[in-house]
């Protein structure tokens, strides 16, 4: 297992990245004037997204981006990634401005020197992400996985939770971990190549048709292993266009508010966008904690311009663990994690939303 992760660390920023590009079909606009050394606005912005039921999916489906960005004439492109590993490769090549990813990949982004910063938490993960096994197997506990093959996307939040679950059960060296993208996990599951996988929705829902959950990320969070999906931005872009970043955060906040105030309505929007059943969307969305901008800038999470939040310490703990497992060659110090998180754009977005 250690050899596999060391090899991954060497290749994770290399290789050919295949992107699924979705043009939003509308121009973008921001409220207020762009600040920074260059007051001209970009002709287009590239957003790396995950096709998952989150605030961004609602914002896209309800054309909230148009509300904020249409008048300025900036084209927006939504680029679909299967995982944060792919998004980090795109950041490294300079081909995207924003990207969604699990906080473990945000840790990797900082540790590998990518010029990015964390500006938002989409949701804190719970039942939306889990370790599942075949119902037909004789696996009823984590200890029963000894000698088995387990698939998960390496460097993901699922990978982090799985490694900790295996370590706590004392069988981390008794399993074979397979690095697979979510679509490949579903295919391998259906072929019978694997009996267990730690993944997230919607792939989790597909394998649970004939599977059962052994442990989920909410249970892992209760044991101290908190995971979350985050949003990163290129620092140079943010420095040049801080108003664009704040307006983008406002879009996400509006999408989140729709679900928090009316879960059924939010689920219907997500279902239509992702082409899934509304009830499935609702169950997936209920498996995570959706936070308001005001909650995110509290000490419990990202903190604010005057104080550091607890999430910076969670990220440092995550980095320490990944390094112990041989996945990271360098662990940033706590101050680097403190500086990596920039809540100022959320504070500005709150002003925009008033």
TrEMBL record:
PROSITE patterns noted in UniProt: PROKAR_LIPOPROTEIN
Compartmental location: Periplasm
CC annotations in GO: periplasmic space
Keywords: Signal
Protein's GO biological process: alkanesulfonate transmembrane transport
Protein name per Swiss-Prot or TrEMBL: Taurine transport system substrate-binding protein
Keyword Lipid biosynthesis: no
Domain Solute-binding protein family 3/N-terminal, chain residue ranges per copy: 44-266
High-level lineage: Bacteria, Bacillati, Bacillota, Clostridia, Eubacteriales
Keyword DNA-binding set for record: no
Chief localization: periplasm
Superkingdom to which the source organism belongs: Bacteria
UniProt similarity note: Belongs to the bacterial solute-binding protein SsuA/TauA family.
SMART domains in the record: PBPb
